[in-house]
Amino acid sequence: MTRPNYDAARALARCAATLDGPSTPAPRLFAFTDPGRTPDPIALARCLPQGAGLVFRTFGRADLASAAFELAAIARARDLMFLVAGEPELALRCGAAGVHWPEARLSQAPHWRRRFAIMSASAHSPGAARRAASVCHLVFVSAVFASRSPSARRPLGPFRLAAYARRTACAVYALGGISHKNAQRLNGLGISGLAAVDGLSRPATRG
After folding, report:
1. CB within 8 A of 117, min separation 6: which ones?
2. Pairwise CA distance, residues 161 & 163, whole Å
3. pLDDT tens per residue, range 164-193
4. Contact assessment for residue 103 and residue 124, using Cβ atoms and an 8 Å cutoff
5. pLDDT tens by residue, 8-43
6. Residues 46/74, Cβ–Cβ less than 8 Å
7. How confident is the model at residue 4 (pLDDT cuts 50, 70, 90)?
8. How far is CA 76 from CA 54, 60, 185, 203, in A?
9. What is the rounded distance in angstroms from the CA atom of residue 122 to the CA atom of residue 120?
10. How does DSSP classify residue 96?
11. How many CB atoms lie within 10 A of CB 185?
12. Radius of gyration from C-alpha coordinates of the chain
């Protein structure tokens, strides 16, 4: 199988840099791993633009700990912000910058607020975005565009995403179907950053 070419991440980083949302201590671009669409997260980490962010979604990997420690080491060497999804103890052990909370586990976030410099969360509804904003530094709202993610819902579109940004008391990042081809549609909407899975690789695919 052909190894993905993550050069598209650089184009997406340039798009993210032009967004007009509130600045945060986090990068403007985040990559999310996925078991099916990111079979080699180590390769992804080595190809991301320096200064980008990486969210390691673990999904019960057998080599979870070793992968997290290797990714954390790459992140330190390449100035990436590394977040571990849903595994706060592992995030602490491997020296990750912070933890990312899936919406379904957001209720656990307040217990860890003092332990991490950065916490983020996923949100698929206005209520979830408000809850995330009360404990996290940034919220990834999805799905903005049509996505191949199994958990993706009906796309919000740019203008509903802008409504999330206006009503959410923390930085809002766009996730779901994001690519360098459609990211320009998010300019001027108060969005602080972008996150992608498929949109990081060429040829650009939907996801």
Report:
1. 25, 97, 98
2. 5
3. 999 999 999 999 999 988 999 999 999 999
4. yes
5. 899 999 999 999 999 999 999 999 999 888 889 999
6. yes
7. low
8. 12, 24, 32, 29
9. 7
10. -
11. 16
12. 15
